Amino acid sequence: MPDSLDRARTPLLALITQEALDRDYQVAASRAALTGDAGSRPGVARGYRVAVVVVVGLFAMLVTVAGVQTSQNADVDDASRASLIERIETRRATVRRLQEDLAGLRAANAAAEESLRSLGRRYADARARRTQLGALTGFGPVTGSGVRVTLDNPSYAGADEQVRDSDLALLVDGLWDAGAEAISINGQRLNARGGIRNVGEAVEVNGVGVAPPFTVLAIGDRRTLASKFVDTQAGLRFLAVARQYGFEHRMDNADKLKLPAAPGALRQLRSAEYAQERPQGQGGEAP
């Protein structure tokens, strides 16, 4: 039992050296017993002892070098492990930062998409409003049902018996009063900026010359447009003038008419300027 405690308390390097030395002594003793020369040849025994000591010393030196090398390798391994842990933590911090950046970019992208959808809706509303205003003002093309009126001079008409701008104006006014929503004459759309006038014997609409036969297209309720036309004062006056001068005219219902937009040149204001509205509560009316 004491031998076991002493063995447990002995350092590992000393224990290995001691056991190796004991074994070497045992080997030497065995060889001496076999040869029978251990007692008679003291020089040989001494040589064995020296050899054993040298071998044990070399073994101890190898064990020491191995221990030192192992310790150095352990230090290197510890340094490498610490460096590896530091790199892992750095990479984790980088990944967390990139994930935060990604979350921010996703939020910004979602906000941009919502803004784009909102702008798209506003743009669609603006286009619809523009189309509606164009139809109301005559600066946008329109389609619909209505009536088609053809008007021509009589074959025997002289210079004073031809269709004049005033005659076309009576026809157009009667159609407006009957409920027409859009009117064109020979492809020229009528609106508040245009007009019908005579230049010599020629008739101009929107500053563009038109010649008979005249084709007047009017979009409106085709079920009532023709009947209401004859009930208007302008319509009655036109019919009276047509009978007086023998104008050839005819009004037919049409299921689908297509009227162009008024010339874009009519949009330009020459004398008037667009007035900016003042916010309420900041002064009186604009002069």
UniProtKB/TrEMBL annotation:
Residues 95-129 form a coiled coil. It comes from the Bacteria. The chain crosses the membrane at residues 50-68. Pfam families: DUF881. Keywords: Coiled coil, Membrane, Transmembrane, Transmembrane helix. InterPro entries: DUF881. GO terms for cellular component: plasma membrane. Belongs to the UPF0749 family. This is DUF881 domain-containing protein. It comes from Nocardioides albidus.
